[in-house]
Amino acid sequence: MRPKLILLDEPASGLDADETNALAAALNRIREKFKVSMLLVDHDMSLVMRACDYLYVLDFGELISTGRPEQVREDPRVIEAYLGAAADSAAEAETVKAKPKKKLEVLPPVSTAPLLEVKDMSAGYGGIEVIRGINLTVGRGEIVACIGANGAGKTTTLRAISGIIRTNRGKVVFDGKDITRKAPEAIVRLGMVHIPQGRGLFPQLTVAETLRLASYSGASSVDLAPALDAFPMLKSRLNQAVGTLSGGQQQMVALARALLVQPKLLFLDEMSQGLAPAVVQQLFERIEIFRKAGTSVFLVEQFVDSALAIADRAYVFEQGSVAVEGPAAVMRRDRDVIAGAYLGTAVAMADVSSNGNGHHAPTESLADFSIKLPAELKRAVQERAAREGMEPGEMIAELLKAGGRAK
Ligand SMILES: Nc1ncnc2c1ncn2[C@@H]1O[C@H](COP(=O)(O)OP(=O)(O)O)[C@@H](O)[C@H]1O
Ligand SMILES: [Mg+2]
């Protein structure tokens, strides 16, 4: 059979970044060789941008944009559908501006050293490096958001910091202590609590038993009052098994337990996963409680707008590295700054600084220089640059700089 049209329903689902690139290349080869048309449905924008000539964008059953990939990528309605509306009303802009003032009141006046400092960290699974050269900090009393497409390496970053997987390179300093490659239980004792993606609760335990685990020994003398004050809906469910609660209630149990531990830093990995937007809103409203209790929060989120609304700063992950970092309020207003990491290309930065991972060299300092390369080397450079979301020249410069540092 020689088909004229192939229909593909989410072929990139479950693939990692490399596999998605290989898929895009395979689709392009098939298309050229067999002159066949394709109709592809996918929300993985890196595949869509690489494989498609023309796009139709649907949002809740409504066609919101059509055009060539480079046009659609710039369309504000598409950016909004992916990331939520930008904060552009006067009132919201005011809250955004007022935020630093509020933060100053909360921050302790003396210590300026960050609570958490991650330097040039790399990690992965079974010899495959998934995150590279991660640099980030979380200040005392700060709420920091970590956003980025699926598979960008956000969860892996949290796991590497909290000691669940070992780092290959780099250094992690927490509250003045070097915790690189320390055991996770030792890191917990220093005051870092990690609520993993999927919440990490024991479904058979009751709510009360789960909350008492805040004392590690599960002692019945644990005072549950602060948790129940913050999450009053748990009062009537203390003797119910956690597994029988709704997803939103389970997340409240996880947050309530973390509150009782009174950690210095809380990691929250996709707290809102699988929950209805109204429930997500309620959970976000509780995050401020941690700040008031003196806990810094580092949260990974798919609900970009809600995360940026409560965060002071944010990091945008793209294919295993930090692509953009800066004040959350700036990212909230200028969606272009983060759209690239979601929609498959790096974009111009507003007043958000590069983290030294090198994705964004200042254009005024660039000069042209041409060299002759063997064809296969040129292809390898182009493919790797595409994989890492960089221009080929930018990537060569990075490699040369890294080589220089190694000597
Ligand atoms: N346990 C694991 N073993 C092997 N690869 C993994 C594992 N967990 C995640 N990965 C891979 O690491 C990459 C980053 O995943 P992850 O950190 O979970 O991304 P995110 O949290 O940003 O969605 C993905 O390519 C994913 O397939
Ligand atoms: Mg994740």
Describe this structure in words.
The protein is of the alpha/beta class. It folds into three domains: 1-73 and 346-365, 3-Layer(aba) Sandwich (Rossmann fold); 114-342, Rossmann fold (3-Layer(aba) Sandwich), CATH 3.40.50.300; 369-400. It contains 16 helices and 14 strands. The strands form four sheets. It has a six-stranded mixed β-sheet with strand order 10-11-12-7-13-14, sandwiched between helices. A hairpin with a 2-residue loop joins strand 3 (55-59) and strand 4 (62-67). Helix 10 runs parallel beside helix 11. The model is unreliable at 88-110 and 345-361 (pLDDT under 50). Bound molecules: adenosine-5'-diphosphate and magnesium ion. Adenosine-5'-diphosphate is lined by residues 16-17, 125, 130, 148, 150-156, 317.
Write the layout of secondary structure elements.
Blueprint: E1 5-9, H1 17-34, E2 37-41, H2 45-51, E3 55-59, E4 62-67, H3 69-74, H4 76-83, H5 90-106, E5 116-125, E6 128-138, E7 143-148, H6 154-161, E8 167-174, E9 177-178, H7 184-189, E10 192-195, H8 207-212, H9 225-230, H10 247-261, E11 265-269, H11 277-292, E12 296-300, H12 304-310, E13 313-318, E14 321-327, H13 328-333, H14 336-343, H15 375-388, H16 392-406
Parallel strand pairs: 1-2, 7-12, 7-13, 10-11, 11-12
Antiparallel strand pairs: 3-4, 5-6, 5-8, 8-9, 13-14
Helix pairs in contact: 1-2, 10-11, 15-16
The structure holds adenosine-5'-diphosphate and magnesium ion.
Magnesium ion (MG) is lined by residues 154-155, 197, 269-270.
